[in-house]
Fold this protein.
Amino acid sequence: MPDARVVKVTLVVLGLITMTPVLALVTPAALEYYGLTRLGPMEEALLRHRGVMQLVLGAALVWAAFVPAVQVPVALAAITTKTANLILTLSDSITRPDAPVFSTVFDSLAVLLLIGLIVLRLRAEWGSDRKPRALSVPRR
C-alpha cells in the first residue's frame, strides 16, 4: 500500500475539486463555466441540485481520506458517478464539443486514481504473495 499520506492528500484534493460545482448555489457565474447562461427555472434547480450532490460526493472522498475502512465503497461511488458523467457527456455529439476540458481531464484522472486505490487496497488486504486456493468439492 502506498504511503498513507499520499492516499490522504490525493483523496482530499479529489474531494475538494469534486465539491466545486456547489458554487452554483451561490453564484450564477459557476454555471457560466459550463457555458450555461440562459436557463429555465427547472434547469437551474437541477444544476444546483447537481452541485449539492457533488458536494456530498466530494465530502465523502475527504471523509475516506481519514477513514480507510470506507475508501473502497466511496471510491466505487465516485468511479460510478464520474464515469457515468463522462459517458453521458462524451458519447453525445451535441454535448461533447461543450464539455469543459478541465472537468473531462479531472474526472478521467480521478477515475484512474480511484481504480488504482482500490487495486492497492485489495492487494494489501489479500496479500500480494498469497496464491489463490484451489476449490475443493465437499465429501459426503
About this structure: The chain has a mean pLDDT of 87. The radius of gyration is 19 Å. The helical segments are 4-19, 29-32, 41-66, 71-90, 101-126. The chain has five helices and no strands.
